[in-house]
Amino acid sequence: MTISWQPACSIEIIQLRAKLLHVIRQYFYAENVLEVETPILCHAIGTDPHLDFFATSQLSGKQQALYLQTSPEFAMKRLLAAQTGSIYQIIRAFRNGESGRLHNPEFSMLEWYRVGYDLAQLMDDVELLLDRLLPADRFAEPAERISYQQVFQQYTGLDALQFDRGIYSHSAKRLGFSEAINICTDDHATWLDFLFSHCVQQHLGETGVCMVYDYPACLPSLARLNTGKPLTVARVEVFIDGIELANGYHELADVKQQESRFDQEIALREKNGAIAVSKDLHFLAALQSGLPDCSGIAMGIDRLLMVISQKNHIDEVLAFPIENA
Amino acid sequence: MANYSTSEFKGGLKLMLDGDPCSIIENEIVKPGKGQAFNRVKFRNLKTGRVIERTFKSGESLEGADVVELDMQFLYNDGEFFHFMDPESFDQYQADETAVADAKLWLKDQAMCILTLWNDAPISVTPPNFVELEITETDPGLKGDTSGGGGKPATLETGAVVRVPLFVQIGEVVKVDTRTGEYVSRAKA
Hints:
Chain A is of the alpha+beta class. Chain A contains ten helices and eleven strands.
């Protein structure tokens, strides 16, 4: 058997990636946003109930297992709490078990935080950056901005903020997804994940960039609750061609709320039989000392390359996809 | 049979779905960034040939289906069952009309085909992509017409009816593509 050593993507794609990174750095340099580096290998890991991670094995008896970060969020927030001002980073993130058309277990992420920005200002920022990165024909119109509740209603007929198992089940059947009833049972968040990914997402960003904001409060992640818009959190996701490109928040700064979300997620992981994790105490201590009011977002660079180069599979924009790494 | 988790799903894997053996055509991971992961799977029901799409929560598992595909020789049709033989083991199998379905239109005695067995019983028959069969009935064509345009229906020795060019006559052997049911050429003598 001959070993295939050559890159999976073309040299043009490798050049395009380098250009993309250059334009991103130019943008943030001009905006006075500081480029930072944080560790990939840490003592703690996020508690996200649906993210699996890679851990190192212990080499000596005393050494604790370390975790390859699923996102640099906690470390970057420790920098923000130390008064760095607005920061960005281009880093590899790792998610175990995620492999497919849009996923590689190791991927490139652009993550940035803007001190003093709310969610609407963050969306403006995303739009300015994408305007420089996307070819003109892919971004002819201003980005579409639509609330989660509105877009969910449009494609499913359901109110994303008011969960009723009977009504949701009935709609699932009507939309041709009867299996959702057994999968989602009475879990509102799973219902939203199912219906959004099967009925809504493919329609988003068909003609340009689409930003969906104000997520239901049962999908909070690290976003703060909206004041004046109950049942929603200040979270935004960016879509192009039905591909999820970025996920951002007006960041939760309340340490008590953050800790209780950790507890809920840890409990959910336990219920689902996911590997147990503990809270990142460094991160909580930073929040305790005070996170400046800020908004932040993470963008998938490989997916951005897919969109720009019109490739259908993430393997086509990676030099060495996991199978070949 | 063993169970297979969604992480082991891939094209060609044979699984039990709703009591029927199915084969995976396509498996796509659907995962909202921070949300629940799903597998959107396209199956072919191996009994009916129908394509089914179904979503699973990632981590769920399905029972494997004991399905094998074997090269077999078609022996004869006794009116109720079609009889096949494994040319290596000489094991014989009988398949009913439902399992043979449209394949019967292309099965000539002694011909080779692929038999799909589920729990050792035939559930479907796949004829070779190309077969050569004799024409038993067709209108006489116009003499000298070799244009091939138009064409006419011809009944073959197995009962299948295909459109053939006007110049092809009763008693001739023609090559047919069984996937499309279309005439390809006269068989080379």
